[in-house]
Amino acid sequence: MTGPVRSGPVRRDVKPEPEPVGTGSVQFRSSLLTFLVNRFFFRFFFTGSVRCSGFPVPMPTPSNNNNQCVVCSKFNMEEGMAENQISPPHPIHRPPPSSQLPLSPTSISSSVKIILDILIRTTPQQIEPALASTGIIPTTEVVVEVLKLSYDYPFSAIKFFRWAGLAHKHSAHAWNLMVDLLGRNRLFESMWDAIRSMRQEKTLSLAAFASAFGNYCASGSFDDALMTFQVMDKYGIPNDVVAANSLLSAMCGENGCVLRALDFLETMKSKPEFGPDGDSFAILLEGLEKEGDAAKAKTTFGEMVVRVGWMPANVAAYDAFLMTLVRGEQVEEALKFLIVMKKNSCLPGEGNKFYKSISTSFAMAKGKGRQAKGKLCFHPLT
Predict the structure, then answer these.
(1) Which one, of 269, 344, 338, 262, lies nearest residue 309 by Cα?
(2) Which domain of life does the protein's organism represent (predicted)?
(3) In the list 24, 171, 274, 334, which could disulfide-bond 244, CB 3.0-4.6 Å?
(4) Positive or negative CA dihedral for 112, 115, 119, 122?
């Protein structure tokens, strides 16, 4: 549910910035007052939510009586920003999963190319009339393809999404992309508007919340990510261990943030409804491998064995743990754990990075004459 990787924010059809207007000028005060009034008006009357301490509090969503896409009434503030040449916050940069990798040029249909050209080259005020003039009826596939390629143009994507919603109801896939697109561009209020609309359209699933977890964590808003997990059951999505693991994965995906994930593990251990399973520990051990924290990896591995036991299928956990020790220059320690794993019928995957790494360590040791001293006296593959 993620989109293409960007190298930086993209501005299109933006006029050169005017000279700064003095904060004491009538023009500046009038513009600021108008923006603040509009912001409050649209948030309260159109989005159905207010914010408390920076986090959206659910309120009843207005009913939709004209069969128009629910999101149509919910992006007014962002449209106003676009039409007044106000840039979105600096977008979040994180790699997309394989399911959302950019399409190859040869796979882009002619309809998608026409629409993308309009989104890139047309001013926000003229996008919807320009789209209507094409005569294109956006199919579900076209909407998905356009959204995948529109992450650098969030305001234009919102306009397109509204226009396409007039033809038919959006698919769950399209909604998930829109949620992720808004989150990637730090438009979190509108992201929540979309989530509420998905609930009303009965297209909401864990995928939307997983996207929110990832984008909040990528922006450093770990408390908001945790709060999202805590309120998701109010939107009809259970905060079970699968959802908790999704949050763990989002936390561990950010450099230096595994400690936050370990704190959340303590919460999981006290909650039977989403207590940690083998996947939970595998995610944490992979995060600790990335950070090279052998001490915490040993503690976490021990907790895993005590809590969920030895699980031969949990190969990822054993791989990550042993690699953390090897990279921490604790090869002998890794070999001791390997022997214990073998006794419990739990081994890392055949031909994986651990075996390759340990073989390299043996070769280096032999070259230095260390093997002759008995420090490394057997090959792990035997």
Answers:
(1) 344
(2) Eukaryota
(3) 274
(4) positive
